[in-house]
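Please produce the structure of this protein holding phosphoric acid mono(formamide)ester.
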Amino acid sequence: MTTASPPLETSSTPWTKAHILDAASLTADEIMQVMAEAQTFAEILKRPVKKVPVLRGKVIINMFYENSTRTRTSFELAGKYLSADTINFGVSTSSVKKGETLIDTAETLLAMGADAVVIRHSSSGVCHQLANYFGGRVSVLNAGDGFHAHPSQALLDLFSMLQRIDTVKGKKITIVGDILHSRVARSNVHVLSKLGADVHVVGPATLIPVGFDQLGCTVHTQLAPALEGADVVMCLRLQLERQKSGLIPSLAEYSQLYGINRERLMQYTSPNVLLMHPGPMNRGVEITSDVADDPDFSLITHQVANGVSVRMALLHLVLGTHTQKGDELYETIA
Ligand code: CP
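Below is the modeled complex.
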């Protein structure tokens, strides 16, 4: 498989954000700064020795109040490759279990010298709440909050697309599945629409929020028109508990109407379609294994790998040491 590289030019606008709270508040210019920075780190990660000393002395704490494989591990690796001290705060073995509040917990960790906290939480808006409370004392990075936002996921998704296509501008990108409960869908719509992509979402009417088109996408409830001519198809995980809550009649019916398989891709999409999934996948429900594992069009393992370089870029940017031409780090890969 050949891969194109995203542009490496850095913006002339200095990076100013101390936090990464959502995708909605990132400008197109900031998104492309993250892409350029991530490309720098992706090159570094190809080397036998992956570690760079740019965040030596910084302390990053992962606070994951919800389960995670990809996001937690890649943020941890990203911090380590940047030479920061990275700590995984174990919620299940902490004083959270004795009723300590999120703010008190974060204050406690800050008192020990944290420079950045990476938070996953089931409550939408928690990251904004913490950033408002702490101001400039610590950088807050959202690793997924409720149904609201998962900005680093959307950025790594974009980075993965840009390894195969020069631009997303004008490309038809279709997100399939449970839009209602998906922070990934929301964040992707924000990022992709800012860069001029033609974003479509499709799913059962019960799993699409009212007014979702206001975010800058076309909404469908039928799969065929949503897939027609698509350049990229992104499947979302169907949260299996949705069936119990009556939002879909059965997994078999969902799969029949919205499942992505080879036949559907061949019938409707662009011949060079790229297939994505943020994981974890329900194989045989929203996606079949034959397409999920097909290296010709599946980007799924690339998405996982790119999570590390994109999260290195985010940590590096918010901790105030972004890379520009002339910088020592930039020169190391020139
Ligand atoms: N895509 C994603 O957020 O995966 P994890 O839940 O494993 O972090």
